[in-house]
Amino acid sequence: MESGNSQQTIDPARLDQFMGQFVGDLGAALSLATVVLGDKLGLYKAMADGAPVTSAELAERTGTEERYVREWLAAQAAGGYVTYDAASERFTLPPEQAMALAQDDSPAFIPGAFQLAASLVKDEPKIAEAFRSGDGVGWHEHDGDLFCGTERFFRPGYIANLVPNWIPALEGVEEKLTAGGLVADIGCGHGASTLILAEAYPQSRFVGYDYHSESIEQARAGARAAGVEDRVSFEVASAKDFPGDGYDLVAMFDCLHDMGDPVGAAAHVHRALAPDGTWLIVEPFANDRLEDNLNPVGRVFYSASTMICTPASRDQEVGLALGAQAGEARLRAVVTEGGFTRFRRATETPFNLVLEARP
């Protein structure tokens, strides 16, 4: 078979394979909105007890209309998110799916990722224009679902790893925080990471900084709700101008690669740390070579980087645009250029590089 617009020979088997991949990708893309609906309308939570339900019963539980719920359930069953028993015409949310779709504090909770992804579809026209102009698109210019979705997406991973694994992997940091240290969380967003640390180390003081004022307002509300305002504060500031010094720990969670001038940020952190302080850098997991990142995790991060991270960096001074798959070697170069002499990978997860830098 020959292509209609070239002399290239088409392999029918490879074309069929790709079209099969396309059908799977299209189904996943179209299901994005149904997951957001299930989360927003409480449909998953209403099925979280594991009891089989009809569409009418689920509609009654959630105050929704049966015919819409019936179609939604069919879509969920086709995607494997719920199961369907034809004999009873009932649908069930298995416990594993309930853990991922209905339990907000579960380490496997995923609706925030779909909310984040949905926001990017809304922002596509802005990104398309940036492709043409070369300009950036700032974090603050995105749809509001990005801010909420990001917090909900990353928070479960922080709950699962930050206190149990990441802090203990750093040299001497757990002891300092237990005794009472001073911590700055840079690029804190809605403050999930800051509050998790504050609840685990009640003797320490924490300040979260972010340039996005709306996110800081949300973080302050979270601190009030958690009852930790006496030792946790949130302020509007960037990574290159946040105030104070003598910090025992400066943390950056999934944000260094978004910065226009990460070297400048590194230099500012170096000045702000106590002489024996530590900089904790959590970044998306990536190998150093592009060809080693061509896998499902890399696909997620490269896609997010195209729509969020690279435009955000290009919107700022310098606009280095590290991207979400910078890799350890590139990050090491940024950190050492900022003045740090010690740098190591403290630990990792399938989704995270956890890096430690010291003066």
Percent helix, as a range, is: 40-55%
Rg value: 23 Å
What is the fold named in CATH at topology level of the largest domain?
Rossmann fold
CATH superfamily of the largest domain: Vaccinia Virus protein VP39
Q: Secondary-structure element order, as H and E? A: HHHHEEHHHHEHEHEEHEHHEE
CATH architecture of the largest domain: 3-Layer(aba) Sandwich
Explain the overall architecture.
- By secondary structure, the protein is an alpha/beta fold.
- The chain folds into two domains: 12-101, Winged helix-like DNA-binding domain superfamily/Winged helix DNA-binding domain (Arc Repressor Mutant, subunit A, Orthogonal Bundle), CATH 1.10.10; 156-358, Rossmann fold, CATH 3.40.50.150.
- It is 49% helix and 15% strand.
- The protein has helices spanning 12-40, 43-46, 55-62, 66-78, 95-101, 111-133, 144-166, 173-179, 192-200, 213-226, 262-272, 296-314, 328-337, and strands at 83-85, 90-92, 182-186, 205-210, 232-236, 247-253, 273-284, 342-348, 352-358.
- The strands form two sheets. Strands 5-4-3-6-7-9-8 form a seven-stranded mixed beta sheet, with helices on both faces. It has a two-stranded antiparallel ribbon with strand order 1-2.
- Helix 1 (12-40) packs across helix 6, helix 3 (55-62) crosses helix 4 (66-78) and helix 11 crosses helix 13 (328-337).
- It is globular, with a radius of gyration of 23 Å.
- The termini are far apart.
- The mean pLDDT is 96.
